[in-house]
Amino acid sequence: MRISFTDDRSQSSGAVAVFALKAKTLSPSAETFDERTGGALRRAMEAARMKGDKGKTVELLAPANMDADRILVVGLGEPAEAGASAAEAAGGAIVGAYKTAHQDQVTVFADTPEGAALSDAEFAARIAYGALLKSYSFDKYFTKKTDNHSRVTLKRLVIVTADPKAAKKAYEMLEKIAEGVFFTRDLVSEPANILYPESLADACRTLSKLGVEVDVLGEERMAELGMGALLGVGQGSERESQLVVMEWNGAKSSKKGPVAFVGKGVTFDTGGISIKPAGGMEMMKWDMGGAGAVIGLMKALAGRKAKVHAVGIVGLVENMPSGTAQRPGDVVTSMSGQTIEVINTDAEGRLVLADALHYVQERFKPQFVIDLATLTGAIITSLGHEYAGMFSNDDTLSQQLAEAGEGEGEKVWRMPLGDVYDKMLTSQIADMKNVGTGGKAGSITAAQFLQRFIRRGTPWAHLDIAGMAWADSEGATVPKGGSGYGVRLLNRLVEEHYEGK
Ligand code: BES
Ligand code: MN
Ligand code: ZN
Question: Which of 51, 156, 276, 480 is the catalytic position?
Answer without folding.
Answer: 276
